[in-house]
Amino acid sequence: MNDTDSTPEYRPVSRLAVTGLALGVASLIVFVAPPVAVAIPAVAVAVCAAAMLRIRRDPSLAGFALARAGLLFALFSLAAGPSYALARYWQLRRTAERFAASFVERLLSGDIRAAHQMTLPPNQRFAPDRPLADGYRDDATARDRLAEFARDPVVERLRALHGTEVARVHVAWHEALRDLDGFAVHVYVGGDTRESARAVVRVLVERSAAKPHDWIVSERLLEGNRDSSPK
């Protein structure tokens, strides 16, 4: 056998195929990035398809398997990415609604200390196993902040509606930044419409991407107020 015949033929790898594979892998960013990232797998599909077509037309080029792998990554990201993003959004939305409703319910039930804790960054809250009454009693700064919180018009309004129930909760808008998710939640107290509600409170709740389980009430505002006297 001739030595030349036993030597594997060298075929240069298509640069387009390598680029397509890189874009295909990068397409997985749709699972953690905003929806605009869906453009990456779309471009990856086009590049990988072009690479596969070029390699088929030019047998001297290698890299068909690379382009095909990139195409599979991109197609998977295109198919599953938007569904994942939508499911994640609705999960965050439900959590934001529950957190905002819990904040209002605690004020309606008279648990002002627990409500105040929800307005503080997690690293400034008392430990979960420490009674809040003890924490505020022993911390002068916390007592001062609680007193200021109690003078807030929203807090005063909801405490005056003691015993009234939350009737409806819905998200008004959502803002997603690089490291923050914010939801404006409308909480209807004593009625499920603006006309029937005793109060409508807009509660802005946020969570940090660094600590996704730590939510905070960053703002509250009264809307569509009714007279707080009993109906």
Structural domain count: 2
N-to-C CA distance? 103 Å
Q: Would you identify the CATH architecture of the largest domain?
A: Roll
Biggest β-sheet description? 4 strands, antiparallel
Beta-strand residue fraction: 15-25%
Number of strands: 4
- If you compute it from the alpha carbons, what radius of gyration comes out, rounded to the nearest whole angstrom? 28 Å
Number of helices: 8
Strand line-up across the major sheet: 1-2-3-4
**Nearest-integer average pLDDT:** 89
What do these coordinates show?
It is a single chain. Helix content is 48%, strand content 17%. It has 8 helices and 4 strands; from the N terminus they run H-H-H-H-H-H-H-H-E-E-E-E. The protein has 2 domains: 85 residues; 134 residues, Nuclear Transport Factor 2, Chain: A (Roll), CATH 3.10.450. The C terminus is likely disordered. A 4-stranded antiparallel sheet has the order 1-2-3-4, with helices on one face. With 231 residues, the chain is of the alpha+beta class. The termini are far apart. Helix 2 runs parallel beside helix 4. The radius of gyration is 28 Å and the shape is elongated.
